[in-house]
């Protein structure tokens, strides 16, 4: 099945700096890569996603890049703000008989210091 | 829309007790799933369903049962609780069809087994 590795596990930045979180996946047939933000005591919420036919996608201060050849994708947050502090999860879709499942990375705790 | 709802929010069980975690969605989503979240382990899939009457196992199904009698509801049953099942449980749902669609998570149930 799919395996997703996420790094770093913790990330601390100063307000206004950029933050980058990286994920690698194992199944070359995976074609959907979402990113979720989880605030304390809440369920994960989708913040951005990318499909395998696209190399980059932006939404205001958030961007995701995908390198299918290397099987890795990254989340970029620019001009970070204290409200960006949360746990971020990447995920990858399966393929074939596993195409109903999302496999998640272990998460990155992002802290933005004022 | 209420989205994905879960009850209860908190639960304490003694080893060997049974209980059912409730999950409901009002978005007419075909796909529903249960995850558990443990520190440093990310979100791991327990069971999922692609429609009423259809369920399948995820990554960590042992000790849990599910059924899907309606589109809206997808309860998770612990038949004989064990301390290893202490975790935060999230239910999620999404629309199926061509390609991938946003997966919505509920607010979670925090379960402690003593």
Q: How would you describe this structure to a colleague?
A:
The complex is a heterodimer of chains A (114) and B (114). With 114 residues, chain A is mainly beta. Chain A is built from no helices and 11 strands. In chain A, the strands form 2 sheets. In chain A, strands 2, 4, 5, 9, 10 and 11 form a 6-stranded mixed sheet that branches. In chain A, strands 1-3-8-7-6 form a 5-stranded antiparallel sheet, with no helix packed on it. In chain A, strand 7 and strand 8 form a beta hairpin. Chain A is globular. In chain A, 34% of the residues are buried. Chain B is mostly beta strands. Chain B is 0% helix and 52% strand. Chain B has no helices and 11 strands. In chain B, the strands form 2 sheets. In chain B, strands 2, 4, 5, 6, 9, 10 and 11 form a 7-stranded mixed sheet that branches. In chain B, strand 4 and strand 5 (42-51) form a beta hairpin. The model of chain B has no long low-confidence stretch (mean pLDDT 95). Chains A and B meet through strand 4, strand 5 and strand 10 of A and strand 4, strand 5 and strand 10 of B.
């Amino acid at each position: 099945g799919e395996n997703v590795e996420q790094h770093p596990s913790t990330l601390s930045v100063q307000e206004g700096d950029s933050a980058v979180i990286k994920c690698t996946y194992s199944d070359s047939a995976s074609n959907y890569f979402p990113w979720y933000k989880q605030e304390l005591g809440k369920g994960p919420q989708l913040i951005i996603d990318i499909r395998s036919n696209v190399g980059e996608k932006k939404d205001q201060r958030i961007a995701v890049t995908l390198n299918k050849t290397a099987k890795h994708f990254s989340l970029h947050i620019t001009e970070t703000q204290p409200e960006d502090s949360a746990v971020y999860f990447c995920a990858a879709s399966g393929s074939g008989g596993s195409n109903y499942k999302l496999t998640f990375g272990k998460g990155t705790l992002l802290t933005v210091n004022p | 829309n209420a989205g994905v709802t879960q009850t209860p929010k908190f639960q304490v069980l003694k080893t060997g007790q049974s209980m059912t975690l409730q999950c409901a969605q009002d978005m007419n989503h075909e796909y529903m799933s249960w995850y558990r979240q443990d520190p440093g382990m990310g979100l791991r899939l327990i069971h999922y369903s692609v429609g009423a009457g259809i369920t399948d196992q995820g990554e960590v199904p042992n000790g849990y049962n599910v059924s899907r009698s309606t589109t809206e509801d997808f309860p998770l049953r612990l038949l004989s609780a064990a301390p290893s099942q202490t975790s935060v449980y999230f239910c999620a749902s999404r629309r199926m069809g061509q390609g991938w669609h946003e997966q919505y998570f509920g607010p979670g149930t925090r379960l402690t087994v003593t």
